């Protein structure tokens, strides 16, 4: 997930999907070939020139959506750059909030939007690498390494046909894929979690979901990536 606001969380149970004809439980020649093809697609997407996409992440707790982040960012472009809006629901004595974040290669700019027409001034902070997106290709390879049973067949994600990969990921597995998540999981004593990704025909991840129980709370992380386009140079806000 994008570590700017953390991962989503919900008590939503994971939906089970019956294996398709292309996801046999044994390593048949056809299944082995399919895994090789998917691995090649992931490699192709990882090596592709930088591109932009609309990014949406959702955070739910006890089936209640508490954080939503939407925006446009660049992928395959080193440090995260782009812009996002983060909306947080009220919780207890904490009121609802809306924050805008602009990420350039040199700095980050943050401001609270609030509930009125008045907006606070931009707060400027160094771009120290704290904001990043999970290594999506790495997740795909990790799941493919679990064998043919990880390949659940094709599904429709938005308007795109994508192959769903599903499996169990250990905390140690994400040490380099999502360092910030790794630190949180290790602190919470989490050993493993379920993870699904959906890969399109170009090898790009269009959806990522994780089911994690932390501190007694079942969490459900959702990332959706769509509307792919050319990379752009994010400018500082005026």
Could you please describe the fold and organization of this structure?
This protein is α+β, with helices and mostly antiparallel strands and 238 residues long. It has a domain at 29-90 and 132-227: outer membrane lipoprotein receptor (LolB), chain A, CATH 2.50.20. The protein has helices at residues 29-47, 136-144, 179-188; strands at 51-61, 64-75, 82-88, 97-103, 107-112, 123-126, 151-157, 160-170, 192-200, 205-214, 217-230. Strands 6-5-4-3-2-1-11-10-9-8-7 form an eleven-stranded antiparallel sheet. Helix 1 runs antiparallel to helix 2. The two termini are 28 Å apart. Residues 3-12 and 17-27 have low confidence and may be disordered. This is LppX_LprAFG lipoprotein. It comes from Kineosporia corallincola. InterPro entries: LolA/LolB/LppX, LppX/LprAFG. Pfam families: LppX_LprAFG. It is found in: Cell envelope.
Tell me the Rg in angstroms.
18 Å
**Strand adjacency order, main sheet:** 6-5-4-3-2-1-11-10-9-8-7
CATH level 1 class label of the domain at 29-90 and 132-227: Mainly Beta
**Got a strand count?**
11
Can you name the CATH architecture of the domain at 29-90 and 132-227?
Answer: Clam
Gross geometry: globular
Give a short account of the largest sheet.
11 strands, antiparallel
Strand content: 35-45%
Q: Cα distance, first to last residue?
A: 28 Å
Structural class assignment: alpha+beta
What CATH calls the topology of the domain at 29-90 and 132-227 is outer membrane lipoprotein receptor (LolB), chain A
| Low-pLDDT regions | 3-12, 17-27
Tally of DSSP helical segments: 3
Average of the residue pLDDT scores: 85
Give the % helix: 10-25%
What sequence of helices (H) and strands (E) makes up the elements? HEEEEEEHEEHEEE
């Amino acid at each position: 997930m994008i570590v700017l606001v953390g991962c989503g969380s919900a008590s939503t149970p994971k939906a089970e999907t019956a294996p398709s004809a292309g996801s046999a439980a044994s390593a048949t020649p056809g299944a082995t070939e399919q895994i090789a093809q998917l691995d090649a697609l992931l490699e192709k997407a990882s090596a592709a020139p930088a591109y932009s996409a609309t990014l949406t992440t959702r955070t739910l707790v006890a089936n209640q959506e508490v954080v939503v982040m939407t925006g446009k960012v660049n992928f395959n472009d080193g440090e995260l750059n782009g812009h996002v809006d983060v909306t947080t629901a009220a919780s207890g004595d904490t009121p609802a909030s809306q924050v805008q974040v602009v990420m350039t290669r040199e700095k980050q700019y943050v401001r609270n939007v609030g509930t009125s027409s008045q907006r606070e001034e931009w707060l400027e902070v160094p771009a120290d690498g704290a904001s990043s997106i999970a290594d999506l290709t790495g997740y795909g390879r990790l799941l493919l390494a679990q064998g043919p049973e990880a390949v659940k067949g094709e599904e429709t994600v938005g308007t795109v046909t994508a192959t769903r990969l599903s499996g169990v990921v250990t905390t140690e597995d994400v040490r380099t894929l999502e360092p910030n998540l790794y630190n949180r999981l290790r602190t919470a004593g989490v050993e493993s979690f379920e993870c699904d990704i959906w890969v399109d025909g170009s090898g790009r991840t269009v959806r990522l979901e994780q089911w994690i129980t932390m501190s007694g709370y079942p969490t459900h992380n959702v990332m959706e990536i769509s509307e792919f386009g050319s990379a752009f140079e994010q400018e500082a806000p005026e």
